[in-house]
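Protein 1 of 2
SEQ + STRUCT:
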Amino acid sequence: MKPINVSAHFRQPPDPVWDFIFGDRLRQAVAASRLLEIEGYELRPDGTPRYTMVMKAGPLRIRSVSDYFVYDRPRKTVNRIIGGLFDGGTAYVDLRPEGVGTLVEMRVELMPPNLRKRLALALSRPLLVPTLTAELGRWASAADRSGQ
């Protein structure tokens, strides 16, 4: 499947943007979110996190595990997506200095393991890009308001 690509410009340099998105067990990003909840956050001895991400879609709760294998502060993360609708996918987040701020780019490569999930993703894809774009924009606005 074609990757999902979204981005947003934050007005802060990469370090405070990283802290807003990934710091304190993702609490600031989750507080700014309309979509996400985090359960069972674990920081492993190698410094990579693993947690259950719960995506809220109306009355539905779609759970998947985010299992990081690249966690390079303040530049990039890469995590496997285990379970849920996005099972078998990989999420990449890159933070790049841009002007006086930071460009945050998110790419999600989806590789659904079965026909049922491929069909569900194909049907939901037209909603995913604008939804994730709006979500990242909410994070940027909240980071501006928080001064991070």
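Protein 2 of 2
SEQ + STRUCT:
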Amino acid sequence: MEPLTEYNVQARPDRCVVEVYDADAYLDDAEAMRAAEVQVVAGNGYHLYLKSLQPDIRVAVTIRIWDRPQRPPADAEGSTPIDLESVTGTLVVNQLSLGPAGTMELPRPGVYAGHAWWINRESNLKRYETALFGPTEDASAVDTLSQALAESAGHEQYVLDLYFVRESEDDED
């Protein structure tokens, strides 16, 4: 079965975090960010934080919309249930101080539920640490790090598998 729509982008996990949020819900949530330290992905319903173990190598972020709930794959390193409301129908993938990596137009505004899952967090951290602390005699630390950043981009991946639950509630009261 294929998703209804899929969006892919690479984002630098500035300060080890990538955010996904509704275009009108850009205010930070310190409590949700702290929760992501433990859960890897956490949010407040409008704003998700994806917690990488390294701050420099670009990670792949995939958002898929399905017509019904999906299970995380068996080979995922971890997963967590998520809810995300988008009153605008536009999701932003943000790189903290670096700005947006991209935006996704949802099929329609509303409340979505599903799972976030991830792969290659630990192995990408090892690549990063090797590049930082283990330059070879033939290459400078800058060359080694630059090569590792280029070769490892997208190796670490976060996937949001979502399905539409309901319309957003009218907030005019």
